[in-house]
UniProtKB/TrEMBL annotation:
Biased segments, Basic and acidic residues type: 943-963
Any one cellular-component term (Gene Ontology): plasma membrane
Membrane spanning stretches: 12-33
CDD domains tied to this protein: UDM1_RNF168_RNF169-like (cd22249)
Region (Disordered): 923-963
Keyword check for Nucleotide-binding: no
Protein name: Uncharacterized protein
Biased composition (Basic residues): 931-942
Keywords annotated in UniProt: Membrane, Transmembrane, Transmembrane helix
Organism: Chryseobacterium hagamense
Amino acid sequence: MERFKKLTLKILKWAGISIASLLFLMFIIPILFPGTISAQVKIFANKHLAGKLDYKKTHLTFFRHFPSLTVSVDDFLLKGSRPFENDTLLAAREVSVGINLKNLIFDRQVKIDEIYVTDAYGNVFVNSKGEANYNVYVSKPSSQPKDTTGSGTSVKLDLIKLKNWNITYRDHSAKVLVDAKGLNYTGKGGLSEDIFDLETDLDISKLDLSLNRIYYARQKTLHADLITRINTNALTFVLRKNELRINDLPLKFNGFLSILKDGYNLNINAASEKTTIRDMISVLPPQYLDWAKDTRIEGNSDLFFSLKGRFSEQRNLKPRLQARLLVSDGFISNGKAPVPMKNFNMNLNVDLPDLDTDQLGIHFKTLGFDLGPNNNFRAVVKTKGLEEMQIDAKIKGAVDLYTLNQALGLKNIEVRGLLNTDIKANGIFSLDKKLFPKTNGSLNLKNGWLKTQYYPNPIKNINIAANIINTDGTFRSLGIKLNPFQFDFEGNPVFVNADLQNFEDVLYKVRAKGVLNVGRIYRVFAKKGLDVSGLIMADLSLNGRQSYATTGQYSKLDNKGTLILKNIKATTAYLPKSFYIKEGNFRFENEKMWFQKFFATYGKSDFALNGYLLNTINYFIERQGTLHGKFGLNSNYILIDEFMALKKGDNKDQSIDVEYAKVENPKSSGVVMIPKNLDVALGVNARKVEFKGLGLNHVKGTASVQKGMVYLKNTSFDIIGSRMGIDARYQNESPLTANYDVALKVLDFDVQRAYKEIDMVREMATAAKNVKGIVSIDYKLKGDLDKNMKPIYPSLEGGGIVNLRDVEVKNLKMLSAVGDNIGARAFNDPDMKGVNIETHIKNNLIHVDKFTFKVSILRPTISGTTSFNGLLDLRIRVGILPGGIIGFPVVVTGTHEHPKVKIFSKKGQGILEALYNRKTNKVIRQERRAEKKTKRQQRKEKRAQEQKAKEAEQQVNKDLKEK
């Protein structure tokens, strides 16, 4: 017993000493090594990170992530790689790295084997060009020998732990958005090995997923338990154990993903088998989940999914997507329902080869449900393709919408009415080939009634009788009758009757009459408080054939009636703001739609139109039709800046190209985008037009919009106190680029005022700073505009004449330098009155033709080249008495600010022109000084260029012979 006591005391003693020693080490090590660790971590970061790294405090402790010794930084901020060096890639409250204690104590080396990131925001971004912001880790070149000493800092990860992350992944090149909130992740394994198994535990509280702006998941919870074998040599991920749960829906999948030089190789299979309809419904958008809680839902479901093949944009390869959804023995009933929905069955197959929608196959082998006797719905639908779609469909049903509403227990909407549908279709649908499936079908709704929680009054007396028939599979035999479509809302009846035959040359009879309060009917379907209002009043009778208007047989048309719009809000895909039609009175008279009284605003701009549109019926019938018209446009004020595509505005439905350009260029305005389906002439009379702070007053002339281009002809306006005449053409190429041609004439304008008020004058004519007086210009230019709608100077081409009618030129540095060198102070104040200066512009160079002026008794003649960036290569002949016949040469090089003068010299220093790529709108090379070369070098280069040209000509001849 005594020996046992001693042994126990000895064990407790050494245990206490060990624990005390361990605690002592845990306190002392962070004190002994902080400099070593902090210095080596900073060195490692500077060597291996391309993005800017910033943080506030650093800590070395065992206690933040016990028992690991960790280096922690607070308020961590990492910027992205180029070209996203100003954007945040990762921001976190705390980032910690675990240090291998053995290497630290015995080798004084920092080996990182764990990473912890807490309370973080991640912003992963790939732009439309495929450039990514996450390429911040710079690895050592493979050509360097391996470090065999084992010194310094290295990463050999065994654990990654992420806690409370919000991360957004946006890939504009693939049109993918993933937004995950409340992400917690633990990854274990030999992450630094060439081949290892990564054990993953992942939880996301809210997950959004969209492809091409279509959301496939909104606010979903996600749990993943995964084991993935990763081969870093081949960049292959093999899915070994992979279990997901999206809300209540379990999903298992297997396969592999290989990352290749030019894309991916995929083979992934997923399944959710032997689940219930309720589990399947759990992945619906959040607004439907409350409904599911209070509804009895029974039945079985199975989901299968596969994605196989290569993905390579360069080689135009894409994988095949296949999916199958089975729902059987479905039963849905709300507690108040007199009859449940029973026998809900669905067998859906989706096939998308090469992710090509033109090959999309959708097959509803079964789709149906019962709502009691004589109240059921059945459909079998099979389609293949999109642009040219093969269709085989049978749809039949008789449904009491009130019974359906009660069975489903819908809370926010009430519907009533008897709906009968019977449609059979078989054949090909193609707009280009004008094919339509052989069809015989009808849809009838009687005594319809619709009410939502958003508005107290219902839409009543909804009656629809629609029939469609096609006998031979072409547009020629297609007929659609709508007799009638009518409803009552707020005491105002609306009635539409339509009979359309032969869609190759549509024979139409349409009658429409009624008053529609747009603001109130919008509130039936949307939440209150949104700024939408307006009134539409129609009394129309349209009778005719499509070809009557296109072939000029206007006497055969019988289109008449009126359409009145008041306070209508309208948007387009390319403008950032909404148009507000304050008042629009339209009268239909055979081929013309007259604008009798039309007033609209767009931001600060206002427009009054009078005139007509042609071909309006054909525009709505014909695919990609064009509207023709002629108008007078009057305006008090037009602000061009508001129309630039990337400006801020209330329009949330801009095109995806504009949306992505706005995200990728947040500080840019973009250019004005022109619709391609207009052919309209405008007589313009605008009191003031403003563009980038420059005011154009009393604008008058002719404008036209044709095929996505705007033309100005015989247009004039007041600018800086002078009247300018202009002919121009403008065309946008994308939301970020545009091109233009302009021919302008301006008489007698003030040079100093132009220099102060017009940016382009300051940039193109820097010498104007030293010029006072009146000049006239006759000039033609063409070029490109950048993403802020500013001229790209290397793109400019053109030329013209500047007449110095009555000017003073004082202290121009270039002329002053010449005067100083030849001893003639009069060059500081030359006489240039009445001088014409002709110049030509190309590739950022301005070529000056010879012009002569007076300097006291001297007659200088100047010619040569200068550039927009200020380089000079000018020749001056200084003529002396009598009449300038005798003279001597002078060369001026250097820059406008620092000119270099050589007297009695004809040898300047040339300027190599800039290089500009018009397809990409990029400046490849700025202009620069030509290298000084000997005559021997010049002869050698000339012979090489001649030989190259000869070989190119021979190759062209060879290619032509082969053809």
